[in-house]
Each structure stands twice: as structure tokens, then as C-alpha cells.
């Protein structure tokens, strides 16, 4: 069953050139089917796919609770993207590339070998590069160029890390590496490899100081691609890979955790500061996205069980909320033909659903109760303070206040601002934007009010995977 | 026999290196470079490092070639070149599948393929199909992405 998570999007990519006029429908059907398979896999928990006897090939795909959570997120964001794409284009290359990006991301979640992980990261990255430049304007080409250059630098670090790991452990499967790096003679080279891999994955996920491609890429991408990029791609190709390798394969120790916490807090604060006073809506959301990625890392590397649960919950929330905010921005842009925040003044009356769902998304990401973003941030902060990381906890609180500030300023301008003549003739966004926005806002409210069952059913099992792996690494006691 | 095969491989590498340096057409240069990497991966395999050979084939002959052709597509507005690079890039997945099928089915009919075997390691087809098969799937997806990417960048701008 889990092989379908790769096979379905690949099949869609192969079909769309032959059904060019129905490409958007094929893509939409593919995301629906993918959501059904993801739901099935989620309900059946841990799964392993082994040999396919009639084939000459043999490969193993595995999914633990953490990767299943990511697979569900990919399916949700893909479905939202499909909705938004219905009113965007009917170009079959767009749908083929988007399908391949989804196949690449699902592949990343299912592999158990570091080199194959790299191959699927490249599938997703290459498709993303093309999609960023899809509009084929100067802005798009510049953003895609920045992305591919930095991505290639990241690839160099990742490959170097993989090859040295192969040299010192004699294998490339996660299991072989996990055992190999714990041998006393492999400790220091293993740590060096982790640094190389982390550098590569941090570039791919846009952490400070490797974040310069993020605002350009999010800003220049077609709107549905901004949703996917901010919602899931950077998390899948960068953050997930980093967490998978650092936490569950090589193992986290206090020294590594501290380095990641410093990177996380610098990213959280810098992103929040840069988001303030951004005149361009998509760039503001891009900087906000950078900031929230820092938050996720703060939770996951806090070394405290509550913090890890908060980090995983924030990963889930951020995928939902950033998809929601970017789809709202797509609505605003499609109605006003502008991305400048000043032009949206007083638009709340004209676009009540968009403004309402934007309020839910922005207040949630800023950490206002009882929305889901509040609980994940609360758990992260509790985790940090419980782990005696007081200074980082205080700075993280400050970053959250900054987030609230720039979103409130935006709310004041958009919803309560004086209506300008520019928005006099504006109407509500099309249903292809409204339906997913309402759906995502509902998820935000439901998982906020019902945070306890959400955490018990989905988040805690995924966080357990990370905590068990981390405790295994610590008990091995060989890494500094 | 072994020495002569190694010499042939060496000659192929040098020959295609010269072609890569000499040709004016960037796409042909990228493809010549890919051939060098493919031959180099056979050499590495014969030296007894099957994983390194598979990595060389994946990264250098596969991904890097797609990246080069994509970048060339991005900067080259020539319509004739477009047709050529679409055909070449579209041919890559077909060539990959054909190469795999040849390795799998052709061995007993084409004993000459044994030149790719190493005395130190498992047969190359076992390495590719049984140990690194998911990489092959990923490589085909990378090449497929490259095909759509080239088609996208060469399309005429819509109104």
C-alpha cells in the first residue's frame, strides 16, 4: 500500500501529457486518491513494504509514526494546492512537475537509506526549481536561480557527508549508519558528517543564515506553489531530513542539541524581525515562515519530552497555518492584482471569508488561545524552560510577541483599515480558494480546541519516535 | 583480456573528455560529460566498489546531466536547440530503462556484457536491481522531471 504514495503521483505525471485539457482534473483526482491512501496508511500505523516478487527489483519502504504524520501533511497540502491550481493554469507541465515534487516528498518519507533519501530530495528540489520559475518572468527566474545555486551548495555538503559516512560505517542504510557511528573510532568523523549534513539540510529548509532564497522563492512562485513550498516542501526536503538523520539515525546529544537550539533561536528571532514592515504580503509570510521553522527546531531539540511534542505539533500546525495564510494571500492577490499590503486597506468588508480565515491563521501562528498555534508554542516554551534553557526560552517568547505584532498590524490594515478606492470594486475570492481556506481554518480551530485528543492520537506517537531514538543515542554514551 | 578492456574504457574516457572540451554545442558537451561518468562508473565497479559506482552513475551521469541540460534550456532561446534538447532529455528515461532491461535480460544472450562484471563483487545487475533499485526509481524520476522542466522552459510565453 505505501508504494502507492510514490506510484500514484508518478502515474499522474505520466498521464497528464496525454490528457492535457484535463490535466487539472487528473491532478485533483490524484491528490484525492493520495489523501485516501495517506489516511489508510495513517490508520494502519507502522508499515513495511518489502519485495515485489514478480519484479526483478527488490526494495524496502518503511514508515514510522513520524513519517506517517508527514505523509498526511503532504496529502493535505497537496489537496489544497490542487484546489488552488484549478483556477490557476491548465498547463500540463505544471501538473506533471507538481506531481513529481509530491512523489519526491513521499519518497523522502519512506526510504531507509541515506543515499536514496538524497536522490528523492533531488527529485523534489528539481521539480520545485522548475515550479518557482513557472511564470517565466524575471522575478521567477531570479528566485529559481538563487534556489538552485544554494540548493547545489547544500547538495555538495550532503553528498560529502554521505560519502564520509559510507567510508566510516561501511553502509548507507539508516540501520548500518546508526550502528556504525556509535563505534568509538567513528565518533568524531560521525560528528563531522552530521555537521556537513546539517549544513546542507539547513540550507534546503531556509534557516538563518542560509535563508536568503526563501523570500524570493515564496514571493516569485505562482500562488499554488507558494502554498506547497511554504506548507510542506521546505519541511520535507530540509527539516524532516535533518530531524530524521540527526535524531533517529546518528543520534542527538546535549552538544548537538545546544548547537541546534542556537540556530533555532537565531532563525526564530531574525525571521520575526525581518517580517516586520515588509510591504509585500508574500515576503512577509516568507519571513514569518523562516521564524516558525526556528520554533520547530527549538521544540524538537529542547531535550524535553513536552518540548519535543510541542515541536512536532508546531510542525503540523505550521504546515496547516502557512498553507492557509498563503492561500489567503493568493485570494487577496487575485482580487486586487497586488501583493502590496497597503493596497488591502479596508478589504475585510469586501472579502469577509478571506479576512476571517486569515484572522484565524494569523492569530493562531502568533500564539493566541484557543487556536492550535497557541498550544504548540506553549509546549515548546514549557519544554525550553523545563530543560533550563531560560535565555533561549525568553528570546523565543520575544519572537512570539514580534509575530503577534506584525500580524496585528496587518489585521488592522486589512480588516479595520479605512477602505480605499482601490478595493471599492473588489469581490470575494473564487471558491477554489475559499473552500481550502475554510477547511484549513477549521482544522486550526478543531485541533486547537481539541488539542488533547489531537496530541494523543497523532502528535505524541510521532514525538515518541524522536524521543526514543534520542534516548537510545544518549544511553549509548559515545558521542560528546 | 582484462587489460584490453581497461584500455578501451580509458580510451573512451579520454575520447569523450576531448569531445566535451572541443564541441561548441553545450548540450552535446553535457551529454559527453555524462558518458564519461557512465564509463567511469564501470571502471569503479570493476575496481570492486559497487556502491561508489552506483553513486557515480546516479549523481554524475544522472542528476548532474539533468541539471546541466535544464540550465542550458533556461538560457538558450533557440527553438531548434529546444527540439533537440527535449528529444535528448526525453530519450534519457527510455535509455535508462533500456539499459536496465539489457542488464537484466540480455546477459545470457550477450556474453560481451560480462566486461562490466568485477571479479571482486556481485554482478552489476544484482547491485543495481537488488541493492540500489530504489535509487534507479529516483533517477528515472529525476530524469522525468528534467524532461518536463526542459519542455516548460522552451515553451513560448503565453499571452
Defining key terms:
heterodimer, A: 480 residues, mainly alpha, two-stranded antiparallel sheet, globular, B: mainly alpha, 2 domains
What does this structure look like?
The complex is a heterodimer of chains A (480) and B (159). Chain A is mainly α and 480 residues long. Chain A is 75% helix and 1% strand. Chain A has a domain at 272-469. Chain A has a two-stranded antiparallel ribbon with strand order 1-2. In chain A, helix 17 (431-449) crosses helix 18. The radius of gyration of chain A is 21 Å and the shape is globular. Chain B is mostly helical and 159 residues long. Chain B has 2 domains: 1-111; 121-159. Chain B is 79% helix and 0% strand. In chain B, helix 3 (50-75) runs parallel beside helix 6 and helix 5 (124-131) crosses helix 6 (133-154). Chain B is globular and about 45 Å long. The model of chain B has no long low-confidence stretch (mean pLDDT 74). The interface between A and B is large, with 41 and 33 residues.
Write the layout of secondary structure elements.
The complex is a heterodimer of chains A (480) and B (159).
Chain A: H1 4-15, H2 23-43, E1 47-49, E2 61-63, H3 65-86, H4 92-110, H5 114-132, H6 138-169, H7 174-180, H8 187-205, H9 213-220, H10 223-250, H11 254-275, H12 281-300, H13 305-336, H14 352-365, H15 372-386, H16 390-414, H17 431-449, H18 451-476
Antiparallel strand pairs in A: 1-2
Helix pairs in contact in A: 1-2, 1-4, 2-3, 2-4, 3-4, 3-10, 3-13, 3-17, 3-18, 4-5, 4-10, 5-6, 5-10, 6-7, 6-8, 6-9, 7-10, 8-10, 9-10, 9-12, 10-12, 10-13, 10-18, 11-12, 11-16, 12-13, 12-15, 13-14, 13-15, 13-17, 13-18, 14-16, 14-17, 15-16, 15-17, 17-18
Chain B: H1 2-22, H2 26-46, H3 50-75, H4 79-105, H5 124-131, H6 133-154
Helix pairs in contact in B: 1-2, 2-3, 3-6, 4-6, 5-6
